[in-house]
Input
Amino acid sequence: MPGNTKYVYDFEEGSADMKYVLGGKGANLAEMTRLGLPVPPGFTITTGACNEYYQTGEFPDGLLDEVEAHRIKLEQKMGKKIGDPDDPLLVSVRSGAAFSMPGMMDTVLNLGMNDDAVQGLAKQTGDERFAYDSYRRFIQMFGKVVLRVEGGLFEEAINKLKEKKSVKLDTDLKAGDLKELVKEFKDIVRVHAGREFPTDPHEQLKLAVEAVFKSWGNKRAVDYRRLYKIPDNLGTAVNIQTMVFGNKGNDSATGVAFTRDPATGEKVPYGDYLINAQGEDVVAGIRVTEPLLNLKEKMPKLAEELFANMDTLERHYRDMCDIEFTIEQSKLWMLQTRVGKRTAAAALRIAADMVEEDLVTKDEAVQRIDPDQLDQLLHPQFDPKAKVDVLTKGLNASPGAAVGKVVFDADIAEELGKNGDKVILTRWETTPDDLHGMVAAQGILTSHGGKTSHAAVVARGMGKPCVCGADAIKIDAKNRIFSVDGTQVKEGDIISIDGTTGRVVLGEVQLVPPKPSKEFDLILGWADEIRTLGVRTNADTPEDAEKARQFGAEGIGLARTEHMFLGDRLPIVQQMILAKSEEERQDALAKLLKVQRDDFIGIFKAMDGLPVTIRLLDPPLHEFLPSPIDLRVELTKLEASGTPEHELTERRELLEKVERMAEQNPMLGLRGCRLGITYPEIYKMQVRAIMEAACQLKKDGGDPKVEIMIPLVAHVNELNTLRQESEAVIGEVMSGCGVAVDYSIGTMIEVPRAAVTADEVATVADFFSFGTNDLTQMTFGFSRDDIEAKFLPRYLERKILPKNPFETIDDGVAEVVRMGCEKGRKTKPDIKLGVCGEHGGDPESVKMFHEIGLTYVSCSPYRVPLARLAAAQAVLGEAVVTTA
Amino acid sequence: MPGNTKYVYDFEEGSADMKYVLGGKGANLAEMTRLGLPVPPGFTITTGACNEYYQTGEFPDGLLDEVEAHRIKLEQKMGKKIGDPDDPLLVSVRSGAAFSMPGMMDTVLNLGMNDDAVQGLAKQTGDERFAYDSYRRFIQMFGKVVLRVEGGLFEEAINKLKEKKSVKLDTDLKAGDLKELVKEFKDIVRVHAGREFPTDPHEQLKLAVEAVFKSWGNKRAVDYRRLYKIPDNLGTAVNIQTMVFGNKGNDSATGVAFTRDPATGEKVPYGDYLINAQGEDVVAGIRVTEPLLNLKEKMPKLAEELFANMDTLERHYRDMCDIEFTIEQSKLWMLQTRVGKRTAAAALRIAADMVEEDLVTKDEAVQRIDPDQLDQLLHPQFDPKAKVDVLTKGLNASPGAAVGKVVFDADIAEELGKNGDKVILTRWETTPDDLHGMVAAQGILTSHGGKTSHAAVVARGMGKPCVCGADAIKIDAKNRIFSVDGTQVKEGDIISIDGTTGRVVLGEVQLVPPKPSKEFDLILGWADEIRTLGVRTNADTPEDAEKARQFGAEGIGLARTEHMFLGDRLPIVQQMILAKSEEERQDALAKLLKVQRDDFIGIFKAMDGLPVTIRLLDPPLHEFLPSPIDLRVELTKLEASGTPEHELTERRELLEKVERMAEQNPMLGLRGCRLGITYPEIYKMQVRAIMEAACQLKKDGGDPKVEIMIPLVAHVNELNTLRQESEAVIGEVMSGCGVAVDYSIGTMIEVPRAAVTADEVATVADFFSFGTNDLTQMTFGFSRDDIEAKFLPRYLERKILPKNPFETIDDGVAEVVRMGCEKGRKTKPDIKLGVCGEHGGDPESVKMFHEIGLTYVSCSPYRVPLARLAAAQAVLGEAVVTTA
Output
């Protein structure tokens, strides 16, 4: 119904809450206009128009008429006409979606320029050179963005001209040179776009709007949306705005500003600007910018006005704002604002400060922190004790340290990343086309660009360490090498970068975990007051347990005992498995009993007074043995080399044993409680070790809280049998020691059947812990080891799965968890229900677990703060994440 | 509450419907008594008493008092006293559970015998030899059964005595010899039981009752219950009955009779008897028996009375009865009756005849056939065209033919059977201790015993071929060899047996499927009228499809296309997988298209007019390649033998490819629809082949009904994507051919997630087929290949699982199926819902699927009749299986 739909809004008609209609940029331009700030007038085409365009492949009926009407109104307001040979109106045409997608879509500046308008501009400004420079910039941008002409062709023409004129800088080109360039650019368009350059401003506008619509569907925009989970059907708005020029001489400037420091959160205006430049020059990092505070000296009055406007915006938005401004011949224009991206440290400090300043409530402060971003605070740093030989220093663009192989290409970074290699993506400067490589990299290093350059902004958003503008680095991308003062670094060489200080180091630097700030503790303390979901940790060692406790873990949700079977214990474990006699097996078990008891003493001590869930042995025993393929190859070699028969016999026996234990699908084989039933002595030894440790601590005045967890239960009878066997041992140990220890016995729910029959399983379980890793594997029929390399990437790319189900809990798997909880509670209303898969540390999953009504989640120590925050946000309702 | 519980019933007090209280034998003795048949008086101790004994380990309070009271009543009725030196009462003490467990539990005869009673018996019978023979038999049986003395010791003593007396047969021993034997037997008891032989009849009775109770828990009884799924908590009753003697001279006899022929079902009295013998002699197959009909000549009046009684019983029970009788000095006694076991052929004929005779209704006839037993009718037979060189002939004890390795020992049979070897258990005669070996064997061959011997009865029950009494066979078990007229057959040699004709053949005879009888078609026709569940077949070839159609299949529920990728197609498939260029791959696909199209033409023809569900390729591609371990070993050998480098390169490349495709858990890896999405060209080729075949047939006047099934769907998006891709191909083919063909596209539900989200999946599925094999694997987290060898036996033994979930659908898995059906129907009320796992051919599972409300089950061709019957029985309510 085109007649009923309004496709175009003047800035005066919109407001900040219309971002789904006008896009973020359009809505904020409207809001600034309503606030009375100096915004160059203009209007916005709605996202709805874009969506209709995607459905039909054509502009919706009536759109062009509406645009025409608003253009005329704009001309009237400005007293200028587009294409006017005396005083032409020039406009910018910019994309603007509901969620910021910086640099992902297309922009056209100086639209309206043609052979007439350039005369008018020259007349109006009395600056012919400026007029022709604007004209050639327009043809170049329009040619590249709208007509899809290869951008390098224009650059080449400029370089040739400069050579011919024997000048070095673009600015050295005279008006006459630029006239020549305009002609040449038009020729380039004719040849490479297969059409004349459109001189009719109305056609220019129509083509530019269509180009912006199309850019919503370009590859880098689609990639970006996948990364940030932005739906594809939102569409982009298009903003048509009067051009103002920051490059009209030394009384002009352009810049980017933040109301507070986006790296530290400090309450001080922050940003970069350039005198006599277009906005693109600042953002693209092509020229070295000046710090915003210098503006106070250079243009004191304008600086005062700008800072006042920034203050207005921050108070209005009640959040740190990111602003673009232009000064055109001493007149300040506000070109754009939005809530600014920031580092995790800044996010915490800003939120805490704003509570202090009574700008926001504690609940809002908690809601404003993106849990995923917290992770960057917990990123490792260079070990302060490490001897660091600094190769060079760049800007500390995104905090945290990283170590990896130097890679010069996003595709290679992605390739190596998939293979599990750690890489540092090293570029002159990144562009939106590098996004997939940045995702795959541990850290980003650039030789160019400031703290608001593409690399810096994106890396901060991703929480990845970034050092940028390290200009001592000379990159030779062709030969896959960079050099710093004669030191050469090849692709594949290991380097370390420290995004907190800007240091770049050749070789691997030892990393250490960071210390969180006081705001970190403050805001997480508020989160703890809000949340109802418990947060425990997965920890197998006293060290991990202590660390997690420092991060706020309220106990251990999963202590995996198999990790205690490795290292120097492995030979004992192999002796147990391969024992030829009962004595030999008992001997091995006795040794294991002793070491496991010591393991448990350490863990109970670290978690004294808090519950500790210990999972009995889970993996198949053959995981502790050499691989049959290696043994067979070795044997074949020995046979071929004529080794005497008697020496081969032992090898053959070992091989035979190992092959007998091998399984087609070990994931679904003899493991978990099936081991406990098949080899009862192993679980009995483990239960004994746990209880002897607990009894000893209890005697020493400690307060161990033991939860014994039986893994991989599919049928209530398995748990029942093992519970009885365990309780017999527990009774023996406690009466032997003469003390009673709090204990409970429960199970992991990780086999679908256990969830389906949870009402039965609950009859003999004191608690359930959903092992969502295995539960996802079995509910999907996915072997994680196999699918992540083989077809999951394709599934995500084709959107067959919306997300990696091993990172964020899948709806179907969540349904199985919900069923298990409901059935479990039906039998035993107060049964403890936890989650100990990796999903316990994923914010979106934590929210789901809160909704399902679990008792607690358990995650790795470093994810504990994140889970605390996410659990609080789940209570507060849908988290409004300011950085999105 | 012993005061309120009645533990003992006189035969006059009970009835046939009390079998859970009195056991089958006791209930039927009571029923015969009420019918006025000549039953030796006695009383029954209830199964409840046995169960209390198992709970406490002691006789329940009051039991012995009740026994005492009933004993006194019995003595009064008989006018004899137990242990009376003038006219002693002797009794038998026999077990009798609710379900017949022939030979599984203990029996004691002649109880009451002691040094006084033997005098009385001698006086009363005027036959001292008989009295002492009875005495020594009693000591021998009591010693063995109650006092657990090794039976061989008594046999040895008899043999020594016979040697000493230079006689050959037991019957040649004189009264004096037997007196000596009695003394010696008492000595054996004293030495080996560590106590005096108990002479007090009351103590004898108490000990015998306890021994019967205990025999409920012996290994062979427990094994039997596991095999026939009889609960362990039913307990056994104990029948104490006045002894009558079939060995009191030539006017005495004992026998076993069936009211109709249990092998063929013919309406004629059938059985065996022995003149002057104890009942044990007939059943144990120790002496060669006479056919029952001979009794007409030998004892005409008694035969007439017996046949009249048999007729009474059959009309009363409205079923074929199995009877034990004894003639003591020309007086007929009915010792036992029960509904008789029969072959499947007999079951069908008896049921059909009884409908004809108006004894039972058609519904009852259908209910009376055990679906599992039908299987034996469909067992293969010797190929009539095969040249068969008969080694020897025995009795045709259980129909069907079998081929396997000769094995002389039940343990070895079980061992080899587990490894997948086919074996023929070959014994002099089987005993209940051989049960596990019979379960494992393909067929049973004995050199001794009649058609009612242990081997024959049990084999018929199991539906296994059995040839018994092949007395030309001389077994030398020690040397693991048998010989027939000089031909020696070693353990491990292959033989073939034909239980329908009794033939035994050295070597392998080709087997062919049998032709079912007219009663088979009749009763299955009745079943078809009753059932509401459809029955289809799993068939991959035109031959299987035709066979299944003959057996009544109403279409194909599962045609696996991977079988079409093997044999001479394998090289093409390997070419497709390993193709180094796109051309090479397309070339392979084109070849496969052609052969697959021909495959489908054959199948559609065989099922013309009926629906054919074709599953697209399911297994992982690496299943079609050589094993990486073999390749690696081969390569290691080649390397060690100094093969030139250039010859190794190709091998190395192949190995690398194969290793790259290998998976940790192929069950959960790149297979099913995941292949379809990863390699779209394979599914497109298959869909094209299917539709080209269907279009061609349609053009030729056929009526193909195509159902394309996409396997292993976990997420609706998988099915949606592949449906769209398939429909594009279908549209192309149909418009290319210019005909339209009925088709539908659906999915297998075999991944738990698909069941949990079946409401979503149903939006793009025309049908679901539950693949309960994989669904069981994933719901349990069981890899069938691994667990059946590794821990399932232990799970069944310890009753952690009540049944093998791959044979009978597990409750938890059934719940997942139910959920899938409910959710699927919520979205699409008329969605077709089938099952195509092996459970589709398991009667108990079929009943479950009927209850869940599926549209059809699909099973292997030979299971189709069984599924038809089971589906009808599901409608009729709980099937009363007469053979249990």
Q: What stands out?
A: Chain B touches chain A through 57 residues (CB under 8 Å). The two ends of chain B are 33 Å apart (CA to CA). Chain B has a mean pLDDT of 91. Chain B has 35 helices and 33 strands.
